[in-house]
Design brief:
- It is built from four helices and nine strands.
- It is α+β, with helices and mostly antiparallel strands.
- It has a single domain, classed as 2-Layer Sandwich (Alpha-Beta Plaits).
- Strands 1, 2, 3, 4, 5, 6, 7, 8 and 9 form a nine-stranded antiparallel beta sheet that branches.
- Strand 7 and strand 8 form a beta hairpin.
- About 30% of the residues are buried.
């Protein structure tokens, strides 16, 4: 019988995309207010791998990622996903953009072994976390590289995303060494 233990804290990861620069700026400020200082910021990527979001978000979408200084307990992802959904609704109510969804906030977390993204949509490869939220291992780290799955979103298959995920993984590993992996 295996011994039941608590998981190590993980690195909170947030994907943000929009066609509006102001929405990206708002997302950064709002995310820092909610989850504390940002440790890592990706470059801004062109989001062109799918037309899925065009009806609700428009065209010429740009995407970026944030990773936060404060490590989280993995089950906190449920509350964080609820918060990001509320923040999207708040931004829509406060702005005057014509799109039904002017910003998309996708939370997840990075471990040494994987990137887990939160979603409200159930699929065969997703596990129910609670309170209407599912978790998906979008990519995993094996033998020095990020490995995709048949369900991995096309943009998450890109080398640029994998480079940023490696930065996140390295940051997390340094935190484990320096902080002994404690939540702070």
């Amino acid at each position: 019988m295996g011994e039941i233990t608590s998981p190590r804290p993980v690195l909170l990861f947030l994907g943000v995309f929009s066609r509006n620069e102001a929405a990206l700026d708002w997302s950064r400020r709002t995310a820092e207010a909610a989850w504390g200082p940002i440790a890592l910021t990706s470059k801004v990527f062109s989001f062109e791998d799918t037309t899925y979001y065009e009806k609700t978000m428009g065209t010429n979408l740009r995407k970026m990622f944030f990773a936060f200084e404060r490590l989280i307990d993995p089950p906190a992802l449920i509350d964080i996903k609820h918060t990001t959904n509320e923040l999207e609704t708040q931004f829509k109510a406060e702005c005057e953009y014509p799109e039904p969804r002017p910003v998309n906030l996708d939370p997840g977390y990075v471990t040494e072994a994987k990137l887990v993204l939160a979603t409200t949509k159930d699929r065969d490869h997703r596990l129910y976390l609670g309170r209407g939220i599912f978790g998906e291992v979008t990519v995993h780290f094996r033998r020095g590289v990020w490995v995709t799955h048949p369900w991995t979103y096309p943009d998450y298959q890109s080398a640029g995303y994998h480079e940023f995920l490696t930065e996140c993984r390295n940051y997390l590993r340094s935190r484990y060494r320096n902080d002994r992996g404690k939540l702070n």
